[in-house]
Sequence to fold (614 residues):
Amino acid sequence: MIRLFVRLLVLTLGLSLFAPSIKMLAQVAPTSSPAGAGDKVELFHADSLVVLNVPGQVVRKLHNNVRLRHKGVLMYCNLAIQNVTENKIEAYGNVRLIQGDTISVKGDTMFYNYQGSTRQANMRGHVTMRDRKMTLTTAQLDYNMMSGVAHYPTPGRIVDKENTLTSREGDYDTRSKLFTFRQNVRLVNTKGTLTADSLLYNSTSRMATFKGPTRITNKDGVLTAIAGQYNTTTGISNFERRATVETPKYRLTGDSLYYDNATELGIAKGKVVMVAKDHKAVILGDHVRYNGKIGISRVTGHAVAKSVGNEASKDTLFLRADTLFSFDNKLTNTRRFLANKNVFVYKSDLQSKCDSLIYDTADSTIYFYKKPVVWSQNKYQMEADSMRALLKNNKINTLFLKTKSFVISLDTLKNFNQIKGRTVTAYFTTKLVSTDTLTEAIETTKTAQKTTTKATGPGNNSALATNDPLKRVVEKKSTLPTSKTATLQEQTTLERVIVDGNGQSIYYALNEQNKMIGLNHVECSKMNIEFNDNKVGRIRFYGHPDSQLIPPKEITGEVQELDGFRWREAEKPTKNQVLWLETPPKEQPAVKKPLKNNGQIKPLAQKLVQKANN
Fold:
């Protein structure tokens, strides 16, 4: 009996010396390892503990259900090797690290270093980090517990309530809840997808800040920028360094750009370019405010609108103003421009300046207000208190002048044919003109003109100027030269003018040799004047016309001008002026010319001069 007791005692002592059971230790208070004053790792539990024989170091190996605690951080694993001398722990299998009630990290392996002021946990293999708002998964995670920053050098994936973020590498500040993503960054939520080279993301405010090429895509369009912020919750963006937002209908670009996805409100500043794709229109300016829901844009600062013609005509209309508004009609899919203050217009066949203007693409109509001036083809100048121009195939077709209307036509001899009235309607025609030899010969032949005067009945008198150049062309067709090549271009010319109310006209009558016959002064209530190759052709006067033909030798002084005549070609805007590349000339004041009367002015001319002086 004594021998059996001795054997059991020896066996028990042997086990306690060479393989102490942790189960026995677990029944007592937690022990601490000598890691240094104030920096001890507490061992809560392990199924077994083995002290390894490492010269000069204290190393122990903990097996199964290992639980440790260090400065409030709990660590769990299947196997742990603790180097008490170097203050390091290696943990393997189902590794977990819990910090307070907010941070939880899992992985296959952990290397924990707690020397001096360093507390670093490096997790490897299927790493998952969670806090109250997000979950991070990656293959490697280096967590600095002193700074609270976790760095993952391998591709990672972060998921929160609304977003999924992936990147090649990144950092997470567990205190400020700020993520820093680098390389191949991708943010996805229900509102869209963001891709960038680098990105800062706050998981609390859900604000994304980027400094590098960035692209945001959603159902409404695409936004690209180099620097800025994007609120993933509200969908509000603030971008810098040439940002662009593009939708199926529009493209808006500026040095800085604010855009709200919910309200479709966009504000762009600095060299702004707005393109309306379906309307073939471009808006330029320093500041653009666009409300997509109601389809209204306001442009200030070097504001310019460009409207490209249809397939039949690629001619572009350029419109400049101090302030420019654009209104979309979503029912008709058309657009209306409103230009306010210092308005200038340039087209190949039409130039204009006025105080305000409306351009409606629905019916291709331009409304000019407050004493506008319109020029066409370097040959025509038209003024009135207000005007309305109808375009056909993006070319001027009809021009309506209302109140104090004045039309000036410059003929081939540089004479100014003039028409005044209460209202004037000018009709234009556009035709293809060839520059080959045959066409030049035909056009030369068509310069002949014949003027006659004819009465049409009581109260309806007419002065008719007729010619038939086409007949002569046919007769001479066999003698005209021919050309193998031809260049066709569109040319807009004045075809007919109708004056209604207080009509006055001065026009130069030419003979078949294109030489002047005389100057015709006419006053009547209504007139219909037809033009042929920029020369007065057939004229009809209604309502007891009062007319007088002045021979060339008697044409002197102000009889050549109606009251209010000003040839303002110097004020005609150029394309560069409309595009703010040059400064438009200021309006020249009217100059009153002295009367040069040598006693040869006919009674009607005298009456006209008297009216002009009054």
